[in-house]
UniProtKB/TrEMBL annotation, chain A:
Cellular location(s): Cytoplasmic vesicle, Autophagosome membrane; Golgi apparatus, cis-Golgi network; Golgi apparatus, trans-Golgi network membrane; Lysosome
Annotated family: Belongs to the small GTPase superfamily. Rab family.
Gene3D superfamilies: P-loop containing nucleotide triphosphate hydrolases
Keyword Translocase part of the UniProt annotation: no
Organism in which the protein naturally occurs: Drosophila busckii
Name the record gives this protein: Ras-related protein Rab-30
Cofactor(s) listed in the protein's UniProt record: Mg(2+)
UniProt xrefs under PANTHER family: RAS-RELATED PROTEIN RAB
From TrEMBL, chain B:
Intracellular or extracellular location(s): Cytoplasm
GO biological process annotation, one example: intracellular protein transport
Alphabetical list of InterPro entries matching this protein: FAD/NAD-bd_sf, GDP_dissociation_inhibitor, Rab_escort
SUPFAM superfamilies, sorted: FAD/NAD(P)-binding domain
Main location per the UniProt record: cytoplasm
Protein name per Swiss-Prot or TrEMBL: Rep
Keyword vocabulary terms for this entry: Cytoplasm, GTPase activation
Gene3D superfamilies linked: FAD/NAD(P)-binding domain, Guanine Nucleotide Dissociation Inhibitor, domain 1, Guanine Nucleotide Dissociation Inhibitor, domain 2
Keyword Cytoplasm on entry: yes
Single GO molecular function: GDP-dissociation inhibitor activity
Length: 223, 496
C-alpha cells in the first residue's frame, strides 16, 4: 500500500487563461511558465504534502481545456473534496463570470465541498479587481479567499497547504457536514463504498474459478 | 469566451453519446485533432442521466430519438412525506438514466476502461443481488461460492446440483468438448438444462439470471453467457455486475475527458447546419454557427446529420419509476437498500425485460428512495403497454410505494448509416443489451474504418509517469516510466 494517510481530490475551475494550470504546475513542480505542449496527456497532478505530521496525497485536477467553450463535464466535479475557483485580478470579465461558475458548481458538485476563491496574477500591475471586492464576494458565497501569483510563487504553497489542513480537520471531525468527512465515513462503512477500478484492477487479477471467491470480499476503496 | 475555434480538424464528432465519445477519445488518443460537439447543452445525448426536473422537461418535448413520452405523479397514493414538491425539491439529487446499463466485472466495458486507463474517471457500485421471480416470489440468486453455501433459497441437494452444473459449464470449452455437450450443439440451452436433471428452481436460477436465456436461446449462446457470468464473479463484490456511480450518463463523459486531456476541443450547444465535400480537396466542409470548418472525417450520432432523412422505428420501451420502498424482502435490501438486478420473462419466455433497482448507494437518488428502471425491446409505439406484462409481475402486493412513473420509447433508424456524403460515419442508436458490448463494437468498428491499424484506446499513462520538460527525468524511478520506455530500458540492461 502506498504511504499516505489521506487522499484528497481538488479540482480547479474558472475562465480560460486565469492561470489554473500555472497554479497547479507551480505547486506540484515548481515550474513557471509550464511548457505548453506538456499539458497534453496530463489531467491531474499528484503531490504528497505533510501537514501536522500526516502524509496527505493531493490529487489536483485541471479542466483539460473544456472550460473554453463552457463545456466542462459534470463528472469532473464528482467526488471532489475541495474546489478552487480562480479568476484573474487584472481581468474584470473573469471576475464577472464567477456567478456562472458558482451555478455550475452548485448544480454538479457535492454540496459539502470545500470552496476556495482565488484571485491569481497579483504580480500584474494592471489590477482591475481590488482585494476587498474579491474578499467580499467570497464571504457572500461562503468561500475561503486568497490572492496568489503563480509567476512569483506567492501564496501558492499556502493555498494548497491550507486546503490540506482544512480537509484533514474536516475528515477528523467526522460530523458528516463536509465532503471529506463523508468520504472518510464511507470508507469505514462498507455499505456506502464505491469501487474505483484502477485501485482494484490488481485485485481483479485474482483467480476466479467457478463460483468465484465471494467469501469476505469487501469493497473497500483506496481513496 | 473570446477565443475562437480552430477551423481545421482531423475529425469532427457530432453527438456526445457513448459510441461517439469512444471514437472521439480513441482518435484524440492517437494524436488526431478532434472537435467534439453536441447540439444539446448536456453531455451524453440519449446515453445521458438527468435530474428529475430536466427529465420531465425532456419528456414534455420529445425528440426523434425519444418518442411516446409521458410521466405521472402518484400523489394520491402517498402515505409518506414524499410529495411531488418534496421530490422536486431534491431534483438535483436524482440522476435518471434514459439507457440504464450494468457492466460485467470482466466484460468488454470494464476491460476497455482498465486497458485505456479511463477507469480513473469512473467509480462503480457492485450490484448487491441478482434476483429472480420464482413462484411469484422475489429471491436472490446465489452467485458466489459463499452465497451458494449460505443461501436459504436452495436446499442442500440443490446447492450441490447447482455447483456441479456451474462447474461443468465453466469447464465446457472447445478443447474439452465431451460427448455430453456435443449432443446439444444446435439445440436450445433449455433442453440442455432439462437433460442435466436439475430441479425446477435451479433451472429458473440458471435460465433467468445466470445464462440470461429464454426458451429459444441456443445451447451455444446460453453456454457462452453462463461462462461470461461465471468469469465476472469474485472480482468486485458478491455479484458479477457493476453499476456506474451517479448513473450511466457518467460513462460517455469519462471518454470525453480523455479526449480533452489529449487536446480534443469540446463545444456543447453547437450543431452542424450543412456538410458537403470540398471541391479542392478530399476534406469535408461543415457549416456550424456561421462558421466553416474543415474536417477529414465526420462521425455523427443518428439524427444529427443535416440533410439526412432518417426513418425511425421504436426500438426500446422504457419505464422509469421512483418509489419510497424497495422491491422484495428486507433480506434483499440490507442496510437501506440494494442495487439489484431482476430479469423478467413473459409470454412463455418469448419476451424479456430487465429491471434494475437503484438505491441511494448508487448516487442516483436521495436516501430513502428507490429507482426502478424497466427496459424491454419495443413491440409497439406504446411503452406502457409493452411493459404491462412485466409491471404486473413485480408491482403487486406487497408492492413498492410508487411516487412517480415515466414511460418512453427509444428509437433506431430503419436505414442504418446511409449518409449523404462519403467519409461521414453514423453511429448506432442504443441497442437492447445489458452491458456495452454492442456499443463498444460499433465504436471500435468505425474507428478501425477511419484509422486502419491504429490501436483502439491504448493505455493512457498515469500522471506520475509523464516526464515534463525541464524536469530531471533521473529523479523518477523506473517504475514510474511509461511501459514502452521501461521496456526499452530493460532491453538496454540485457544487452549490456
Amino acid at each position: 500500500m502506498e504511504d499516505y494517510k489521506f487522499l484528497f481530490k481538488i479540482v480547479l475551475v474558472g475562465n480560460a487563461g486565469v492561470g489554473k494550470t500555472c497554479l497547479v504546475r507551480r505547486f506540484t513542480q515548481g515550474l513557471f511558465p509550464p511548457g505548453q505542449g506538456a499539458t497534453i496527456g496530463v489531467d491531474f497532478m499528484i503531490k504528497t504534502v505533510e501537514v501536522e505530521g500526516e502524509k496527505i496525497k493531493l490529487q489536483i485536477w485541471d479542466t483539460a481545456g473544456q472550460e473554453r467553450f463552457r463545456s466542462i463535464t459534470q463528472s469532473y466535479y464528482r467526488s471532489a473534496h475541495a474546489l478552487i475557483l480562480v479568476y484573474d485580478i487584472s481581468c474584470q470579465p473573469t471576475f464577472d463570470c464567477l456567478p456562472d461558475w458558482l451555478r455550475e458548481i452548485q448544480e454538479y458538485a457535492n454540496s459539502k465541498v470545500l470552496k476556495i476563491l482565488v484571485g491569481n496574477k497579483t504580480d500584474r500591475d494592471d489590477r482591475e479587481i481590488p482585494t476587498q471586492i474579491g474578499e467580499e464576494f467570497a464571504k457572500q458565497h461562503d468561500m475561503y479567499f486568497l490572492e496568489t501569483s503563480a509567476k512569483e510563487a506567492e501564496n501558492v504553497e499556502r493555498l494548497f497547504y491550507e486546503i490540506a489542513a482544512e480537509l484533514i480537520s474536516q475528515a477528523r471531525s467526522k460530523d458528516g457536514s463536509s465532503a471529506a468527512a463523508a468520504a472518510a465515513a464511507a470508507r469505514q462503512a462498507d455499505t456506502g463504498s464505491s469501487i474505483g477500478l484502477s485501485s482494484l484492477s490488481a485485485k481483479a487479477a485474482q483467480s476466479n474459478c467457478c463460483g468465484g471467491s465471494g467469501s469476505g470480499s469487501s469493497t473497500s476503496q483506496a481513496g | 469566451m473570446s477565443d475562437e475555434l480552430p477551423e481545421q480538424f482531423d475529425l469532427v464528432v457530432i453527438g456526445t453519446g457513448f459510441p461517439e465519445s469512444c471514437i472521439a477519445a480513441a482518435a484524440s488518443r492517437i494524436g488526431k485533432t478532434v472537435l467534439h460537439i453536441d447540439p444539446n447543452d448536456y453531455y451524453g445525448d440519449v446515453w445521458s442521466s438527468f435530474n428529475l426536473e430536466a427529465l420531465n422537461q425532456l419528456l414534455e418535448q420529445p425528440s426523434p430519438s425519444l418518442l411516446n413520452a409521458s410521466y405521472t405523479w402518484h400523489d394520491a397514493a402517498t402515505e409518506t412525506n414524499w410529495t411531488r414538491e418534496a421530490l422536486l425539491a431534491k431534483s438535483r439529487r436524482f440522476s435518471l438514466d434514459l439507457c440504464p446499463r450494468i457492466a460485467y466485472s470482466n466484460g468488454e466495458l470494464v476491460k476497455l476502461l482498465i486497458k485505456s486507463n479511463i477507469c480513473r474517471y469512473a467509480e462503480f457500485r457492485a450490484l448487491d443481488h441478482v434476483c429472480m421471480l420464482y413462484n411469484d416470489e422475489l429471491v436472490s440468486v446465489p452467485c458466489s461460492r459463499s452465497d451458494v453455501f449460505n443461501t436459504k433459497t436452495l436446499s442442500i441437494v440443490e446447492k450441490r446440483l447447482l455447483m456441479k452444473f456451474l462447474t461443468a459449464c465453466a469447464d465446457n470449452g472447445e478443447d474439452k468438448c465431451n460427448e455430453d455437450t456435443l449432443a446439444f450443439r444446435g439445440r436450445t440451452f433449455q433442453e440442455y438444462l432439462e437433460a442435466q436433471k436439475v430441479t425446477p428452481k435451479i433451472a429458473s436460477c440458471v435460465l433467468q439470471a445466470i445464462a440470461m436465456c429464454n426458451a429459444n436461446t441456443s445451447f451455444e449462446v446460453g453456454m457462452q453467457r453462463t461462462q461470461r457470468f461465471l468469469g465476472s464473479l469474485g472480482r468486485y463484490g458478491n455479484t458479477p455486475f457493476l453499476f456506474p456511480m451517479y448513473g450511466c450518463g457518467e460513462l460517455p463523459q469519462c471518454f470525453c475527458r480523455l479526449c480533452a486531456v489529449y487536446g480534443g476541443i469540446y463545444c456543447l450547444k453547437r450543431s452542424v447546419d450543412n456538410i458537403c465535400q470540398a471541391t479542392d480537396s478530399q476534406e469535408l466542409l461543415l457549416s456550424s454557427a456561421g462558421k466553416t470548418l474543415r474536417a477529414t472525417h465526420v462521425v455523427s450520432a443518428p439524427g444529427y446529420l443535416p440533410g439526412m432523412v432518417c426513418e425511425l422505428q421504436p426500438h426500446i420501451s422504457r419505464g422509469l419509476f421512483i418509489a419510497s420502498s424497495a422491491l422484495g424482502s428486507e433480506e434483499l435490501n440490507k442496510g437501506g437498500g440494494g442495487v439489484n438486478l431482476l430479469r423478467l420473462l413473459a409470454d412463455e419466455g418469448k419476451r424479456e425485460a430487465v429491471l434494475l433497482q437503484l438505491s441511494h448507494y448508487s448516487g442516483t437518488c436521495p436516501e430513502g428512495l428507490f429507482i426502478f428502471h424497466l427496459t424491454t425491446p419495443a413491440v409497439s409505439n406504446d411503452p406502457a403497454a409493452d411493459l404491462a406484462v412485466f409491471t404486473s409481475q413485480i408491482f403487486k402486493a406487497p408492492a413498492p410505494q410508487i411516487l412517480y412513473s415515466a414511460y418512453f420509447t427509444l428509437t433506431t433508424p430503419t436505414n442504418t448509416a446511409l449518409s449523404p456524403v462519403k467519409s461521414v460515419y453514423c453511429t448506432a442508436a442504443p441497442a437492447y443489451e445489458l452491458d456495452y458490448d454492442a456499443a463498444i463494437e460499433n465504436a471500435h468498428q468505425i474507428f478501425s474504418q477511419l484509422y486502419t491499424d491504429a490501436e483502439f484506446l491504448p493505455r493512457a499513462p498515469d500522471p506520475e509517469e509523464i516526464v515534463v520538460e525541464g524536469e530531471d527525468p533521473s529523479a523518477l524511478n523506473e517504475n514510474s516510466l511509461p511501459e514502452d520506455l521501461r521496456a526499452q530500458l530493460q532491453e538496454m540492461d540485457i544487452t549490456e
